[in-house]
Amino acid sequence: xxxxxxxxxxxxxxxxxxxxxxxxxxxxxxxxxxxxxxxxxxxxxxxxxxxxxxxxxxxxxxxxxxxxxxxxxxxxxxxxxxxxxxxxxxxxxxxxxxxxxxxxxxxxxxxxxxxxxxxxxxxxxxxxxxxxxxxxxxxxxxxxxxxxxxxxxxxxxxxxxxxxxxxxxxxxxxxxxxxxxxxxxxx
Length: 187
Description:
Layout: E1 16-17, E2 23-25, E3 34-40, H1 51-56, E4 80-82, E5 88-90, E6 96-98, E7 105-106, E8 109-110, E9 116-122, H2 131-147, E10 152-155, H3 156-159, H4 180-183
Parallel strand pairs: 1-5, 3-9, 3-10, 4-9
Antiparallel strand pairs: 2-6, 4-5, 7-8
């Protein structure tokens, strides 16, 4: 199986690295055992711009789009962002805790940020994701499984039901060949 390699610090050399201050240390003696898949686009439904990058690095201009006025103060991040063309961007080393899950629970364990890796796909609940995104995601999932004891791959909606809907109805779980045996747990 092809995969993306992840070093001992949780960095992916194949990814464009963008530092975010929105991270901190994971609790000690916690295994990274969960992958959470999200979707995001900024402005909503628009792709290819820098809105997501600016949000995750606390540089979102509240005046650049009407929607930004309500979210520019958020302090959020994910470990990875996969653009529509498959480009992989890393904001947080896997060994650190990203701030992507919010109030969350998986199999009676709360605070999913403590033990998960968050992957944002450029997209929305309203349309399909692109083939290059699935290709990159599968390579990344292969690398994560090689490095960490990943027990499940889930959507944000699975860990925050009623609060979150992503990755949404157009995300095709059957296309995740690198984690097929782990997806059955959630879907």
